Amino acid sequence: MAGTDKTKDMTSGGPAIILVDPQLGSNIGMTARAMLNCGLAELRLVRPRDGWPSEYAEAAAAGATVVLEGTKLFDTTADAVADLKRVYAATTRPRDMTKTVVTPRQAVAELTALPPGCSAGILFGPERSGLINDDIALADTVMTVPLNPAFASLNLSQAVLLFGYEWFLASDETPARQVVMPTSEPAAKEVLINFFERLESALDETGFLVPIEKRPAMVRNIRNMFQRVGLSDQEVRTLHGIVSALLGRKKKP
Amino acid sequence: MAGTDKTKDMTSGGPAIILVDPQLGSNIGMTARAMLNCGLAELRLVRPRDGWPSEYAEAAAAGATVVLEGTKLFDTTADAVADLKRVYAATTRPRDMTKTVVTPRQAVAELTALPPGCSAGILFGPERSGLINDDIALADTVMTVPLNPAFASLNLSQAVLLFGYEWFLASDETPARQVVMPTSEPAAKEVLINFFERLESALDETGFLVPIEKRPAMVRNIRNMFQRVGLSDQEVRTLHGIVSALLGRKKKP
Questions:
Q1: What's the complex ipTM?
Q2: B10 CA: distance to closest CA in chain A (Å)
Q3: Interface list for A 152-191 with B (CB within 8 A)
Q4: Residue A148: which residues within 8 A CB-CB, separation 6 or more?
């Protein structure tokens, strides 16, 4: 989706994203893009198979160069987490280890509750095999994305995106539902009532609102239908024009 | 991430995902994979640029063939939504249209509240340009993913994934935080207390728990440290072994 406003950069740092043994440069690039979509800035790579920097990563990052330029390389997972104080391992539920397992939303709740300066990171394993148990044992907690158990294999960048999305939502204040009116204001009720009364008198003239004992209910139904739209001033003017046109009263050319 | 259990397929139908003018077959394949990750089954394509079927789509779907095989082709967006009763357009906030805008979470809340048989779909635009206004006008509501406003351009399959993730979560009952113990049970408190008392008496012998007036606080701190772990029976046995080993009492070979 398009729509970028560089004056509102919400890249706030957040936990480091650590890719262990990533294989495809394109997946590293898509990871960088997903990170920046969600305001995450710090990418660490442990032994990227195809070397670093990577032209495939740059192409797939689709402009998220700030993330790629800051990427740090490490020889071991232990090195990559050495300075961190809280580490999550993104993987499916471990089958042979006793481990605390959280959802991404819970991980974000825990991360945002950490005291200032308590640096954190999330480990993600290689595309085909996921994290090995020795790397999972370096983490405090396992983070598992709830997904269709019959098809739970996520693309690497998709796994990073789902964590990042929860990270971004934690500080996001977008209303769940809103009416966006770029060119106009919501119509005041008197503007609406004026339109209703004009429409109803036009319908009276045409004999639509009969029989008379049903008129009150018909009027309420018509008013409710238009109320539900949440009309703007401009839209009420358009409706007046429609009524005029249907009545055969042309506007001035 | 690995981990697939085909006996627990949670593919439940859900709204149709409609890709309008998708360009890259690989993005269609990644979309199919993301859909199946989230239990979404129905994919519709309007004028896929590089034709259909697509070998790139099959490669990128990583096994989500059930989605690809059921994919339906349409010549126009109007045809693709004709049988649907509720349509969302996934795009950024419209700048020049009056439109209701919801988050993906809100869209899912509305979709799950629809009466049975009220079929629905989500429109996604082409990779570079997004949905055109005429297609947005076919939708009841715009769905916009809250993202870093300085870098809001999502990969097509990532946009589908974020909707699908919210769709899946709406019926998911995964605990936010749990301790997974594959091979053992949480230890009963008497097992823990038995270990504590053994450890403390061993520490008394070595002269660690001095001076005597600080012993109660030291014991409490040690006990709280182990309590916080949430130990399993097996782990308590391991700790007994560690204490024995440190005391120099070898196990039988």
A1: 0.84
A2: 5
A3: 152-155, 157-159, 161-162, 165, 168-169, 172, 174-184
A4: B8, B9, B10, B11, B36, B37, B38, B39, B168
Query: Is B71 in the A-facing interface, judged by CB distances under 8 Å?
Result: no
Residues A66, A35: Cα–Cα separation, whole Å: 11
Binned at pLDDT 50, 70 and 90, residue B249 comes out as low
Q: What's the CA gap between B57 and B45, in Å, rounded? A: 12
- Amino acid A253: pLDDT: 46
pLDDT at B253: 46
Interchain pair A180, B11: CB under 8 A? no
Q: Is residue A37 within 8 Å of B147, Cβ to Cβ?
A: yes
CB A99 within 8 A of CB B232: no
* Residue environment code for A128-165, b if the CB has 16+ CB neighbours within 10 A, otherwise e: eebbeeebbebbebbbbbbbbbbbbbbbbbbbbbbbbb
If you average pLDDT over every residue of chain B, what do you get?
A: 91
pLDDT, tens only, B17-68: 999 999 999 999 999 999 999 999 999 999 999 999 999 999 999 999 999 9
Q: In what order do the strands lie in the sheet with A43-46?
A: A72-74, A43-46, A16-20, A120-124, A86-90, A141-143, A99-102, B177-180
Say whether the peptide bond before residue A211 is cis (omega within 30 degrees of 0): yes
Q: B181 vs A98: CB contact, 8 Å cut-off?
A: yes
C-alpha distance from B211 to closest chain A C-alpha (Å): 32
Q: What is the mean pLDDT of residues B109-119?
A: 91
Tell which residue, A39, A143, A37, has the closest CA to residue B158: A37
Contact A1 B106 (CB under 8 A): no
Give the pLDDT score at A181.
Answer: 82
Residues B42/B70, Cβ–Cβ less than 8 Å: yes
Confidence (pLDDT) at A1: 40
d(CA A206, CA A246): 12
Q: Quick check: A168 and B158 CB within 8 A?
A: no
Q: pTM of the prediction?
A: 0.86
Round to whole Å and give the CA distance between B197 and B235.
Answer: 16
Measure in Å the smallest separation between the Cα of B195 and chain A Cα atoms.
Answer: 19
Q: Under an 8 A CB cutoff, do A106 and B11 touch?
A: no
Q: How far is A203 from chain B (nearest CA, A)?
A: 27
CB nearest B11 (choices: A8, A150, A180): A150
Of B102, B158, B177, the CB nearest to A177: B102
Mean pLDDT by 10 residues, chain A (253 residues): 54 87 97 96 97 96 95 97 95 85 96 90 94 94 94 94 97 91 85 95 91 93 90 92 82 48
For B123, the closest chain A residue by CA position comes to: A1
The 3-state DSSP class for residue A166 equals helix
Q: Which of A1, A97, A142 sits opposite B154 (nearest CB)?
A: A1
User: What type of residue is B140?
Assistant: D
